[in-house]
Amino acid sequence: MRFLFIILVICGIFCIGFSEKADANWWKYDGQVKTLLALSDKQVAEMDSLMTAYMEKRIEHKAEIGKLKIKLNSLLSKEKLDRQEVDKAVNRLSEVRRNMMIDMLAMKLNVRKVLTKEQVKKILAHDPSIFTLQKQWSKEKRKKRSRKGRVINKMKSHKMKNKSKKAIEEKKSKP
Questions:
Q1: Average pLDDT of the residues of the chain
Q2: Are residues 154 and 108 both part of a single domain?
Q3: Burial tier of 130 (Cβ tally within 10 Å: 0-12, 13-18, 19+)
Q4: Are both 127 and 170 inside the same structural domain?
Q5: In sequence order, what are the residues at sequence separation of 6 or more whose Cβ sits closer than 8 angstroms to the Cβ of residue 27?
Q6: Cα-based distances in Å from 5 to 1, 12, 28
Q7: Are residues 109 and 161 in the same domain?
């Protein structure tokens, strides 16, 4: 059973890494951009290297964030709350998230440095938000938002059903 769990974890890491990488390497997978920029093999290799290093750090950060969330939830669910421990855990969680953002920005700036001035002009004309914080180089963020949206919609429909049931019950109870 333990062996099966380890295999599943390893497969999950590889699937996450490969799916995010395919979406993130826009310079390789977007044919229009690839043609527009006329990237050299050296540029593609450098950008791939930067992205791979970033994705490895990102996986480490996400794992640490998961562990810190578990620790924080454990601290918060105790009957006797240790405020100093909670504050420490929150500060560490914030620090890791901050580092993750700094790494993402550094990667984007480094990818930009690989491009010539003319290539930067062309890519910004094609997609002005490519190097901004709003631009996600992976689909992960969008998936989370859509899941939240669906959950919120389900909650709203559940509330509406409860209101409808109450209204029906009130009508039945009135003579």
A1: 76
A2: no
A3: middle
A4: no
A5: 33, 34, 37, 39, 43, 44, 47, 111
A6: 6, 11, 34
A7: no
CA 76, 60, 62, 100 torsion-angle sign: positive
pLDDT at 16: 40
**Do both 8 and 64 map to the same domain?**
yes
> Are residues 174 and 94 part of one domain?
no
pLDDT > 70: what percent of the chain?
63
Domain count, the chain: 2
Reference 64, options 91, 95, 96; nearest CA is: 96
For 35-87, what is each residue's pLDDT tens digit?
888 888 899 899 999 999 999 999 999 999 999 999 999 999 999 999 999 99
Residue 129's SS3 state is coil
Q: Which domain holds residue 33?
A: 2-138
